[in-house]
Amino acid sequence: AALTVRFLTRRFIGEYGDMEFIYSHNLTVDGREILFHIWDVPSSQEHAEDGSSEEKRIQWADSFVLVYSICDRASFNILPLKIQFIKAAKEGQSQEKVPIVIVGNKRDLHHQRVVSSEEGRLLALSLDCGFYEVSAAE
């Protein structure tokens, strides 16, 4: 949620509840107006749901940004399974590659890092995804 709000408003808010939100945002990219719809789901909520809710989100979306904390190994370790689930659901229907980006957040907390940048890059490479490391706070 912090990364989504930072993208939408350029402000950082550190604490969020476990709420699911759909945001809409207009952005000009290469001279074209693009309307983004962002379905932001906290990972704690995803763990408590059945697969049909996750399947609904996957069918709704055109692309995916999966965010993990560089300070939380469990948030990183769940990514391969999530990406396989997304690809099976989206690419099984068509031959088009589904755009997926893996984002390691909290780069500013390097002293608490438990997942290296190299691990993130290698995971993204092995799963044919994009990769970035960012700090929503900075």
Automatic annotation (TrEMBL):
Taxonomic lineage: Eukaryota, Metazoa, Chordata, Craniata, Vertebrata
Protein name: small monomeric GTPase
Pfam family, one: Ras
Top-level taxon of origin: Eukaryota
Organism: Dicrurus megarhynchus
GO function terms (MF aspect): G protein activity; GTP binding
Alphabetic keyword roster: GTP-binding, Hydrolase, Nucleotide-binding
SMART domains linked to this entry: RAB, RAS
Family: Belongs to the small GTPase superfamily. Ras family.
E.C. number: 3.6.5.2
Enzyme class: hydrolase
Reaction(s) this enzyme catalyzes, per UniProt: GTP + H2O = GDP + phosphate + H(+)
Listed PROSITE patterns: RAB (PS51419), RAS (PS51421)
